[in-house]
Amino acid sequence: MARRPVKIALALTLPLAVAACGLNPAPEIETPPPRLEGDFFYAPENAAGVSLATLLPREDPAFAALSDAALESGPSLAEALARVDVARGRAERAGAERLPNVAADASLREERINPAQFGEAGASGLIPRNLTRYGANVSASWDPDIFGRLRAQERAALARIDAASAQAAAVRNALLSEIAGSVIDWRTLEERRAALEADEVAARRLAGLAATREEAGLAPGFDRVRAEAQASASLSRLAALESERVRIVGRLVTLTGMDAASVSAALNAARPSTDLPDAPAALPSELLANRPDVLAAAAELAASDADLAATARARFPQLSLSAVIGLLAFDPEDLFDNNSIVGNLAAGVAGPLLDFGRIEAEIDSAAASKRAAFAAYRGAVFQALGDAEAAYGLIEASDAEARQAIRERDRLERAAALADMRYRAGLADFLTVLEARRAADASGERAAAALGRARRARVVLWQALGGDPPSRPAASEGERASAVE
Q1: The CATH number of domain 33-98+148-315+357-484 is 1.20.120.420
Q2: Residue 399, SS3?
Q3: What is the radius of gyration, based on Cα positions, of the chain?
Q4: Buried b (16+ CB within 10 A) or exposed e, 128-152
Q5: pLDDT tens string 115-151
Q6: Fewer CB within 10 A of the terminal residue: the chain, N end or C end?
Q7: How far is the C-alpha of 385 from the C-alpha of 391, rounded, in Å?
């Protein structure tokens, strides 16, 4: 009789053993890291040992106030941080799936039966018509995860915390870049306005001089009209700047969650005059590995790899253990008697035998997802490389443009001053003075706009090189995922 349970166990496990003979490991998908050059092609030749932080206008009080407000209560960053909490909650749930599940319940059940179904015993009145049951149970179940399916799912969930954290860091960097660009645009508008106001004052002075000569009969009224028209042109360009100021304020309201009055007050704070910061030189291309979007893509690749492992391990048998202990009585007074104690202990094993390709289709889908994640990772790396190369080239071009614009402004202003001196000395006519003034007008505005573009190019480079890298705890989620395995 002792051999009978053994025979039954062998009969039950035989189909699973036959199915296990056809199992194969998860498909291997190569994901080699992209090879990058040691240095950037467009990096400046000077050996400027500056940090990325100097590329942002951190000395500007407007940037400091607006960026602090955006990081504290900006809606876009708050949404990204909430996604991190969502990923963390899912990882905690995946980790809890590996632990036993213990539940408790209590019940009161009233039944009414027909005693006739019990034959003579029911007809004799030994079987009551109404039956009341009182019960309380504690149950426990556990999947030992022999083949690691739940561990792989937990690794995937932990990797997605890293991905969500990196995505939040990318949102933070984009937020700081937008605020820095808006502050630079505002300061550029102030410089353009100052240049246009100087042009308008110079044109008004010429118009006054022409009016004086007209009253003295030394010049026709046409000279005064042309000088006044030139002053009106400067005024129209000044009026056009207001629409740009309104757009900047509106954009900052969206980014920071502040009201327009507070944003305007922050922007109107005085700032110290600063020169253009140097671009950091000779930075290695491997620095791009710290970009948040690259880190997020790498974490998603790790998560897809764990998903593939979990899907492949669904082909293996699954062992489950369960136990229930409780109380069952038909009278409240008998609930805690020894005879009321009931329970059971069970162990089960189940695995696929004939699923007609269902699991294989899921494995193929998971493998395709991993290939897509690897392609996305490579795309993020080369997107980062392209952004950095373009940003370095943009700095070089915008710096050259700013230098030429400043040189043009200085020369045209000198020519206008010389023409005015010659006119007052009687060596040049009024038309020569007016033409020299017209050429000098807007040259200061163009120089201010060129300097603003050069400052903005620094912000583009800061973001392209990774900005502020994501802060990592002592043990990152990726390291925890490795520990899980």
Answers
A1: no
A2: helix
A3: 39
A4: eeeeeebbbbebeeebebebbbbbb
A5: 777 777 666 777 777 778 888 889 898 888 888 888 9
A6: N
A7: 10
Residue 304: closest CA among 155, 475, 425? 155
Which is the CATH superfamily of the domain at 99-142+317-350?
Answer: Outer membrane efflux proteins (OEP) (2.20.200.10)
Supply 193's token pair.
Answer: 């306005």
pLDDT tens per residue, range 20-54: 544 566 677 777 777 776 666 666 665 555 677 78
Rounded to whole angstroms, the Cα distance separating 396 from 390 reads 10
Q: What's the rounded Cα separation, in Å, for the pair 458 and 51?
A: 12
**Residue 373 host element (H or E):** helix 358-424
Residue 142: beta bridge partners? Answer: 321
| Residues 6 or more apart in contact with residue 338 via CB below 8 angstroms | none
Q: Side chain identity at 8, as an amino acid letter? A: I
CA distance 451 to 408: 13
Determine phi and psi for 102, rounding to 5 degrees.
-110, 130
Question: Which residue in the block uniquely carries the two structure tokens 């998908």?
Answer: 29
Query: Hey, which residues does 284 pair with through a beta bridge?
Result: 39
Separation CA 461–CA 481 (nearest Å) = 33
Q: What's the burial of 447, exposed, middle or buried (CB within 10 Å: 0-12/13-18/19+)?
A: buried
Mean pLDDT along residues 408-416: 89
Domain ranges of the chain: 33-98+148-315+357-484, 99-142+317-350
Tokens 């940037």, located at residue: 63
The model's pLDDT over 69-123, given as tens digits with 9 standing for 90+, comes to 888 887 888 888 888 999 999 999 898 888 889 999 888 888 887 777 777 766 6
**CA-based angle 476:480:484, to the nearest 5?**
170
